[in-house]
Write a structure and sequence with these properties.
Helix content: 40-55%
Radius of gyration: 21 Å
Distance between the termini: 42 Å
């Protein structure tokens, strides 16, 4: 089974935002609505998480093997 890094990052971000909105519920409905808008809903743009970012690293230069002298 292969892992799709973009789908995985979206799922992690979705769960993190859900945690932020449900772990500490706000009793003020206006403030709760503002938090929902700022954090973004499911599938919406959020100010809290961005990405996913992919970086491509160059491979290291090969050197001598340990056994080579």
């Amino acid at each position: 089974m292969t892992l799709n890094p973009i789908a995985f990052a979206e799922e992690v971000n979705r769960q993190f935002l859900r945690y932020q909105l449900t772990s500490f519920p706000l009793s003020d409905s206006d403030l709760a609505r503002q938090a929902q808008v700022m954090l973004g809903g499911i599938g919406e743009e959020s100010q809290l998480v961005k990405g996913p970012y992919i970086s491509l690293s160059r491979s290291f230069a090969e050197g001598k093997c340990v056994g080579d002298d």
